[in-house]
Write a structure and sequence with these properties.
The protein is of the alpha/beta class. It has 14 helices and 24 strands. Strands 22-23-1-24 form a four-stranded mixed beta sheet, covered by helices on one side. The chain has a four-stranded mixed beta sheet with strand order 2-15-17-16. Helix 1 runs parallel beside helix 7 and helix 10 runs parallel beside helix 12. The protein is globular. The model has no long low-confidence stretch (mean pLDDT 95). Bound molecules: uridine-diphosphate-2(N-acetylglucosaminyl) butyric acid. Uridine-diphosphate-2(N-acetylglucosaminyl) butyric acid (EPU) binds next to helix 1, helix 5, helix 6 and helix 12.
């Protein structure tokens, strides 16, 4: 298995292009089930999770053609399977995104229950509650969710909490339902809006994406279309923190700062300069970082997917920072590994107190999930000496060529064989 080896202490400088968003690409691929035509997606990141979603669609009969590295043509005219098997769902929870489109188009879906994962329990009760309200019969059998119906009908669904993939599943189900669906307390993430834009191009009639109320007027059928995926705001945020930690000067292209307001605010609070630049932003920093407190929230609040990365920033900043995680109950798995590199972090439940200002020292560390891995890479970039990050398959699920991109900016990062 690969590991990543970093020699810390090198300033990042130069220009880098952010890839398409993983968490937009996955629902868009699932949405291609909703039509019989051949849809084209551009800006699809080359990631393990995208390959898993393609395998899942292929298993159901979709034909997927690749053009270059970032364009996929998806034809779903010969769909024959309606199942997401355990083997795929267990490697990627987002497989559950096929549930809504399969029921909407075929009236039948069988999706393995995802179970818990490294960052928390992550139930899907809101997805199921919404589908039931639209007339689907839901049964849980032998570890699978089975959903059946003739044709879904519109309904008013009040989500108990804003859920990103839950909102996406319900939107995809509602576009082919009979009548009007109102999704209240909907997630407002940019990836939800990107899915709405894609569905709109397919002929769906929906309004309100990006607000807590999404209204969908069901139509009888949708047509194939072409769409470019939004840039990955979490990759952009991670690269911003990398620039800040190394006292760097980096121009991020294909970056939408309006998707990162909360992250940019916190970086500015820490003393980092972020200026508009062609097709994105310039991030530069000199001198000391200031401590920042933050609480993760649904969009437009501070994203949970940037919490681990900011902990590294807090560990290097002057003074104590308090980080509160409100989205996932177990998302501090990176703390013991950062501790092994010298970070002084105390966790009590959902709150972590970071006593900043200390040095980080390179050592062997183990990644536990995607964003935890990113935080270890960031720590390696500003640590003294050599850091070996094991289990990089987590990183490859969600960051396209991160090692290559960092190298192009002057970091000493390489991939090596070996390690558990
Ligand atoms: N929740 C429920 N019931 C549900 C659904 C969610 O209680 O039916 C809870 C969750 O347990 C969690 C909260 O609601 O406490 C929010 O979870 P959400 O459903 O929004 O998360 P998700 O849709 O499973 C997506 C991203 C995650 C990201 C979260 C939060 C995708 C494919 N995944 O997950 O991305 O952390 O939203 O923003 O879009 C990542 O990329 O590393 C990642 C984990």
């Amino acid at each position: 298995m690969d590991r990543i080896v970093i020699e810390g202490g090198h300033r990042l400088k130069g220009e880098v292009t952010v890839s398409g968003a993983k968490n937009a690409a996955l629902p868009l691929l699932a949405a291609s089930i909703l039509t019989a035509g051949r849809s084209t997606l551009r800006g699809v990141p080359a990631l393990a999770d995208v390959r898993t979603m393609c395998r899942l669609l292929a298993l159901q009969g979709a034909a997927i053609e690749r053009e270059g590295e970032h364009t996929l043509h998806v034809s779903t005219s010969a769909m024959r399977g309606f199942e997401a098997p355990y083997e795929l769902v267990k490697t990627m929870r987002a497989s559950v995104l096929v549930l809504g489109p399969l029921v909407a188009r075929y009236g039948h879906a069988r999706v393995s229950l995802p179970g818990g994962c490294a960052i928390g329990d992550r139930p899907i009760d809101q997805h199921l509650k919404g589908l039931e309200a639209m007339g689907a019969h839901i049964a849980l059998r032998h570890g699978f969710v089975e959903a059946r119906c003739r044709r879904l009908h519109g309904a008013t669904i009040v989500c108990d909490l804003p859920t990103v993939t839950g909102t996406e599943n319900l939107m995809m189900a509602a576009v082919l339902a009979r009548g009007t669906t109102r999704i209240e307390n909907a997630a407002r993430e940019p990836e939800v809006s990107d899915l709405a834009a894609f569905l709109g191009r397919m002929g769906a009639r929906l309004a309100g994406a990006g607000t807590p109320l999404i209204t969908v007027e069901g139509v009888a059928e949708l047509h194939a279309c072409e769409h470019r995926i939004i840039p990955d705001r979490i990759e952009a945020g991670t690269l911003m923190v990398a620039a800040a930690l190394t006292r760097g000067d980096v121009h991020l292209r294909n970056c939408r700062p309006e998707h990162l307001d909360a992250v940019i605010d916190k970086l500015r609070e820490a003393g980092v300069a972020i200026d508009p630049a062609a097709d994105g932003v310039r991030v530069h920093h000199r001198g000391e970082l200031r401590a920042v407190d933050l609480t993760t929230q649904p969009f437009p609040g501070f994203p949970t997917d940037m919490q681990a990365q900011f902990m590294v920033l807090a560990a290097r900043a002057r003074g104590p920072s308090v980080v509160t995680e409100t989205i996932f109950e177990n998302r501090f798995m990176h703390v013991p590994e950062l501790g092994r590199m010298g970070a002084d972090i105390v966790v009590d439940g959902r709150v972590a107190v970071i006593r900043g200002g200390g040095r980080l020292m390179g050592t062997k560390v183990m990644a536990t999930d995607l964003r935890a891995s990113a935080s270890l890479v960031l720590a390696g970039l500003c640590a003294e000496g050599r850091t070996d990050i094991l289990r990089v398959y987590h990183l490859d699920r969600g960051y396209e060529h991160l090692d290559r991109k960092l190298r192009s900016l002057g970091a000493r990062v390489r991939r090596a064989r070996g390690g558990p």
